[in-house]
């Protein structure tokens, strides 16, 4: 019997999603940092005039706050998180914090860099978010996200890992070591229809409880 799945709205009320702490202490560089987790320094993608960075599932926004001090005054930095910072601090002048669901939020500008550091693990429609985020890039912009293909399941609960990776690669994504990268804005259409999420999927490769995303 197929498992009863949860809607996106209900999923965001669960303790697995609403109380996750993955990015609460992660900084810009160092041992526990975006640079280490992504495999590159975000500043390397933010050169030139008025660079723009969008961080999805940003937690406290610490990495972006630290990077802001090294960026020009005309940079535009947007941190989006379902819960938002637990401690509200004064923002750098280039930075805005948005408390919203990444499943519904849409930006009003394009970005040179879009990151989602271990955030997709807590999103119901992971593939839908990836497709939407691809359209938010500048022509040379980079989308970089952690991704667990084992979390993508068919509606009946069976694995959809191979078909998912095949479709993502056909759309231009590069996958390696649980990281997805996409270079340059594009319209992405993936051959899947989201049917719901499983907040009791258990721990993923990080060792933390994560969400299972089911598709037809």
Description:
The chain has 216 residues and is α/β, with parallel strands linked by helices. The chain has a single domain, classed as Rossmann fold (3-Layer(aba) Sandwich), CATH 3.40.50. 18% of the residues lie in helices and 28% in strands. The strands form two sheets. A seven-stranded mixed sheet has the order 3-2-1-4-5-8-7, sandwiched between helices. Strand 4 (111-116), helix 5 (126-134) and strand 5 form a beta-alpha-beta unit. It starts with 7 loop residues before the first helix and ends with a strand.
First CA to last CA: what distance?
16 Å
> Helix and strand succession?
HHHEHEEEHEEHEEEE
Structural class: alpha/beta
Extract low-pLDDT stretches: none
Domain module count = 1
DSSP, total strands? 10
- The helix content, as a percent range, equals 10-25%
Biggest sheet: strands side by side, in what order?
3-2-1-4-5-8-7
Count of discrete alpha- or pi-helical segments spanning 4 or more residues: 6
The biggest beta sheet, please?
7 strands, mixed
CATH names the topology as Rossmann fold
Strand content bin: 25-35%
Rg, rounded, reads 17 Å
Q: Given the C-alpha coordinates, what overall shape results?
A: globular
- For the record, the CATH class is Alpha Beta
Question: Could you outline the blueprint of secondary structure elements for this entry?
Answer:
Elements: H1 8-11, H2 15-18, H3 34-38, E1 52-56, H4 62-68, E2 76-81, E3 95-99, E4 111-116, H5 126-134, E5 137-146, E6 152-154, H6 161-170, E7 174-176, E8 179-183, E9 194-203, E10 209-215
Parallel strand pairs: 1-2, 1-4, 2-3, 4-5, 6-10
Antiparallel strand pairs: 5-8, 7-8, 9-10
């Amino acid at each position: 019997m197929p498992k009863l799945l949860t809607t996106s709205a209900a999923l965001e009320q669960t303790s697995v999603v609403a109380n996750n702490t993955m990015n609460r202490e992660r900084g810009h560089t160092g041992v526990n940092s975006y640079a280490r987790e992504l495999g590159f320094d975000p500043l390397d993608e933010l050169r030139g005039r008025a660079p723009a960075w969008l961080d999805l599932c940003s937690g406290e926004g610490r990495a972006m706050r630290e990077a802001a001090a090294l960026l020009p005054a005309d940079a535009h930095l947007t941190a989006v998180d379902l819960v938002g910072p637990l401690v509200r601090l004064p923002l750098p002048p280039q930075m805005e914090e948005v408390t919203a669901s990444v499943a519904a939020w849409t930006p009003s500008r394009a970005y040179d860099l879009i990151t989602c550091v271990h955030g997709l693990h807590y999103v119901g429609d992971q593939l839908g978010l990836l497709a939407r985020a691809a359209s938010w890039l500048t022509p040379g912009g980079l989308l970089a996200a952690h991704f667990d293909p084992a979390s993508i399941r068919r509606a009946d609960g069976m694995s959809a890992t191979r078909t998912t990776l095949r479709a993502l690669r056909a759309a231009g994504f590069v996958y390696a070591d649980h990281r997805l990268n996409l270079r340059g804005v594009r319209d992405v259409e993936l051959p899947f229809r989201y049917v719901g999420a499983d907040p009791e999927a258990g721990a993923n490769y990080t060792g933390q409880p994560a969400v299972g995303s089911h598709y037809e």
